């Protein structure tokens, strides 16, 4: 069905499948308000689509429903056009078969959600930096507290329409119609021209949610425009600082949180993040961190197979480095740190080569896809061929691996040189099986929480046994982490796990030989 509207949304011309879609002929449609022919739940969406059409010139296929004489139609594909020389006319095309475009990675290096067309978190942050610096734009943060709970009460069709409506509303108010992103559940950001009516934006999104709520309340909407002074901050550091700060926004939960608190302090938060960036870079470049060793033992004999090399900062071996590593992951500094840690471990192995200690060094999933990291790593290991007998690699944060095929090429590049590679966090989620099916590794480390949960769940033993059986079938060895009790050791042994790691055998220590002296041999009697 082809339809022409004026700016009041009155139908000026109609042709095609009006009978099939609306139950009446074209002559009965002309002169009517097009919005009256749209499902009530889709009207905010269609209004925003038309608004976007007026800004961008066209909008491609989005699924909506029409309201005809026989009730709601099946989903139809809606496309809209506004010609440059006819700014007071909309030209719409509606089709019964929705051949929707894939709104995923259609732009190189840019990720968009397929349901909404919104940029994903990292892509939004990178786009925001570029446009905030180069176009004099502003950024507004939008928070919908309770959105996820509300979303879970809807049917699948209602969820899709609501996501489309929220996404389209944000994009319609953004710079160029494509500068909006979803950074977390119910949390969004848009980059826009100065002077955006934030109150009107809040009202429009709230109106969209009310259409799906039988009580008419909908979801509360909070929006606030960020004030930032970016002078004196280079683009690279600003990008990293903004990513970190947006992640801070993403993690805020609870009724007491208000988006205005983040927006009002964004300038301070970004500058604090940039200062932390500089501090972490200095720490990495000066090698101002230490190695702590934690043993991986044969589950039956207690013999030390190798040690995992863990980082410790400021000489505090009892303090977890989690906050430092998380910061490095979120700001993209992890690849710089990973190669610094690798060099430190290789230097340690050179100094202690005569003791024939084997060490596993962690590689973040983000570093796996970094070409410069791969180049530096191979240059390091190629300098000493004997390292293949004493150096292992453990891929951590596997959820951050963006391209599994590229990651497998990286893994095979190490294995071809005689190095063993371990996949960490296996069993922590359904994606683990996809990783194992694509990444050809030598060892998997069973996630500690999965190991502990298996000990209490009714079918936990069967689950863990199934994992170890699968791995053995694929000629992959298994390590169980977080084995902290004698009962846990006996449990994983019974499930067929080959190696163990945990506090039962000691805590991370700067001296790898200390474990041999302290190890309770009765555990393996």
Q: What this model shows, in words?
A:
It is a single chain. With 525 residues, the protein is α/β, with parallel strands linked by helices. It has an 8-stranded mixed beta barrel, surrounded by 5 helices. A hairpin with a 2-residue loop joins β9 and β10. α4 packs across α8, α6 runs antiparallel to α7 and α12 runs parallel beside α14. The longest helix has 20 residues. About 2% of the residues have low confidence.
Concise overview:
41% of the residues lie in helices and 20% in strands.
The main pleated sheet reads as: 8 strands, mixed, barrel
Tell me, what is the CATH class of the largest domain? Answer: Alpha Beta
Number of domains: 3
Q: Identify the CATH architecture of the largest domain.
A: Alpha-Beta Barrel
CATH topology of the largest domain: TIM Barrel
Helix content: 40-55%
- Strand arrangement within the widest β-sheet reads 12-13-14-15-16-17-18-19
CATH superfamily of the largest domain: EAL domain
The number of E-state strands comes to 19
Broad shape = elongated
Mean pLDDT: 86
Cα Rg? 28 Å
Query: What proportion of the residues form beta strands (DSSP E)?
Result: 15-25%
Would you identify the regions where 5 or more consecutive residues have pLDDT less than 50?
98-106
The helix/strand class is alpha/beta
Gap between N and C termini: 79 Å
Q: How many individual helices?
A: 20
């Amino acid at each position: 069905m082809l339809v022409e509207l004026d700016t009041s949304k009155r139908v000026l011309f109609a042709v095609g499948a009006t009978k099939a879609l609306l139950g009446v002929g074209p002559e009965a449609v002309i002169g009517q308000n097009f919005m009256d022919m749209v499902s009530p739940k889709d009207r905010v969406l269609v209004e925003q689509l038309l608004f976007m059409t007026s800004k961008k010139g066209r909008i491609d296929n989005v699924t909506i429903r029409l309201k005809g004489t026989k009730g709601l139609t099946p989903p139809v594909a809606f496309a809209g056009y506004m010609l440059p020389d006819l700014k007071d006319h909309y030209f719409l095309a509606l089709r019964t078969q929705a051949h929707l475009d894939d709104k995923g990675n259609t732009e190189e290096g840019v990720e968009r959600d397929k349901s909404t067309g919104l940029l994903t978190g990292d892509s939004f942050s990178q786009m925001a930096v570029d446009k905030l610096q180069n176009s004099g734009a502003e950024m507004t943060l939008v928070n919908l507290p309770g959105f996820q709970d509300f979303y879970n009460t809807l049917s699948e069709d209602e969820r899709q329409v609501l996501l489309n409506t929220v996404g389209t509303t944000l994009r319609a108010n953004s710079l160029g119609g494509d500068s909006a992103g979803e950074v977390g559940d119910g949390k969004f950001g848009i980059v826009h021209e100065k002077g955006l009516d934030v109150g009107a934006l809040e009202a429009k999104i709230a109106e969209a949610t009310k259409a799906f709520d039988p009580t008419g309340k909908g979801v509360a909407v909070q929006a606030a425009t960020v004030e930032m002074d970016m002078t004196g901050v280079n683009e690279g550091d600003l990008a990293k600082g903004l990513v970190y700060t947006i992640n801070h926004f993403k993690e805020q939960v609870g009724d007491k949180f208000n988006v205005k608190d983040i927006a009002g302090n964004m300038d301070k938060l970004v500058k604090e993040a940039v200062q932390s960036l500089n501090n972490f870079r200095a720490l990495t470049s000066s090698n101002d961190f230490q190695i702590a060793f934690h043993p991986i033992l044969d589950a039956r004999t207690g013999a030390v197979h190798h040690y995992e090399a863990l980082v410790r900062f400021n000489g505090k071996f009892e303090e977890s480095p989690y906050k430092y590593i998380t910061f490095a992951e979120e700001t993209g500094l992890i690849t710089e740190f990973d190669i610094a840690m690798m060099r430190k471990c290789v230097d340690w192995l050179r100094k202690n080569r005569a003791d024939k200690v084997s060490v596993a060094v962690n590689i973040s999933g983000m570093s796996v896809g970094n070409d410069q990291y791969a180049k530096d790593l191979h240059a390091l290991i190629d300098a000493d061929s004997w390292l293949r007998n004493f150096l292992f690699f453990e891929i951590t944060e596997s959820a951050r691996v963006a391209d599994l095929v590229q990651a497998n090429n990286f893994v095979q590049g190490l294995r071809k040189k005689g190095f063993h590679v371990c996949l960490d966090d296996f069993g922590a989620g359904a994606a683990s099986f996809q990783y194992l099916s694509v990444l050809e590794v030598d060892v998997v480390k069973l996630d500690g929480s999965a190991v502990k949960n298996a000990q209490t769940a009714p079918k936990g033993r069967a689950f863990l046994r199934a994992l170890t059986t699968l791995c053995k079938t694929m000629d992959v060895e298994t390590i169980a982490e977080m084995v902290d009790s004698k009962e846990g050791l006996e449990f994983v042994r019974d499930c067929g796990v080959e190696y163990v790691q945990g506090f039962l055998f000691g805590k991370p220590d700067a001296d790898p030989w200390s474990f041999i002296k302290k190890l309770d041999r009765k555990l393996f009697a």
